Amino acid sequence: MGLFGFGKKMEEETKGGCCCGETPVKESVSECCCACGENGCHIKVLGAGCKACHEQYENVKKAVANMKLDAEVEYITDMEKVMSYGSMSMPAIVVNEQVVSMGKVLKVSQVEELLKKLGC
Predict the structure, then answer these.
(1) Which of 63, 64, 69, 103 is the most exposed place for a label (fewest CB within 10 A)?
(2) What is the pLDDT of residues 71-109, one digit of tens each?
(3) pLDDT tens per residue across span 16-59
């Protein structure tokens, strides 16, 4: 039982719709957005807003479209959020809250291979 007599159910109801407490990115996704993978792959491109980082974001979006994945692709340029992933080289790709590539711009075909290996 939680603090002040509130049980786990109350704690789950007060956090976001995901197991990690985050609010889902899309309204149609109500359960999960992170590493447990309950709703497929959640992909983030971390960058500083530079040309290379934007190119990586576009390549990831194209790969997702080519593969016909139902995956949200998010572009994060907030340096505090970027640093929270521990990636010191950009651009970086994060899939289900794990950094899977950093410091280089992957081609669309390379992103597709990576996502296949990760089971997206």
Answers:
(1) 103
(2) 999 999 999 999 999 988 999 999 999 999 999 999 999
(3) 445 455 554 444 334 455 544 455 789 999 999 999 999 999 99
β-strand 98-102 against 92-95: which pairing, if any?
Answer: antiparallel
Q: To which H or E segment does residue 114 belong?
A: helix 108-117
User: What predicted TM-score, i.e. pTM, was given to this entire model?
Assistant: 0.69
User: Annotated catalytic sites, by residue?
Assistant: 50, 53
- For 110, the token pair is 């390379």
- The encoded tokens of residue 65 equal 């479209």
Q: In what order do the strands lie in the sheet with 72-76?
A: 72-76, 42-46, 92-95, 98-102
CA–CA distance, 44 with 95 (Å, rounded to integer): 6
